[in-house]
# Entry
Amino acid sequence: RAQQAEFAAARAVRLLELAGKAARESVARAVLERGNSPFGGTLWSKAGEGLAPMASALPQMTAEWWRNQAEAARFPWPTLLIVTMAVVGVGVPAGRWLGRRYGRSPDRTQPSPRQRLAAALVASFGPAFLPSLLIGGWFAVLEHSELNAGAFGNLLGGLAFIAAAYLMFTGLTRAALAPSEPDWRLAPIVDASALALARIFNRMALFLAFGALAAVAGGATGSVTADLRDAFSFLFHGSIGIYLLALTRRDLWRGN
# Structure
């Protein structure tokens, strides 16, 4: 029994060594493996070939979803209309009340930091919070009606989240920068810098939204090739790097 135990222990140690060696070799292959360079034509040609199946799969997936799960008799049009009327009917008066109570008033020439922050949140209520709430209500109706099943349901959920995030980001940044109302601006910068920053943030948010939508669409169709993923990653991260470098310009942060 002692010999059997020693033999079993030695065998276990050997198996652990072999497993560790295999793991190290796998990691080394993954690290050292090189795909097609983004500075050559091979990657882009193969990425274009991989883009065609994904582009053709989206309309087919949409038509199948409508045919199988969202037929006219099942689609909750009345509920969507009720949700829309409720959000608009409550949100618009609430936004007007908040604007009168905490909004930007021309009578206040030197608002406090707390007043500027509250006014920025109120200014973003209409372009950011209210449409995001409406999108969330629509998605909740579809989710409750079990119309978000399948790959297209995942795509629809991703689209709703991306749209709400885009509206929130652009609405909040523009309200905080207040290009046309310097007295209510959260950052102590000149008008030209505030307008330039608002444009950069809007373009960057739009690019991020398109990138996230492409990633969600690729995941929903399941037809993304390695070359297409590499090309998209190069374009996405390279463009984000350019936008971030643009934000380091000194003229964008000139104080009053």
The mean pLDDT is 82. The radius of gyration is 27 Å. The first helix runs from residue 2 to 32.
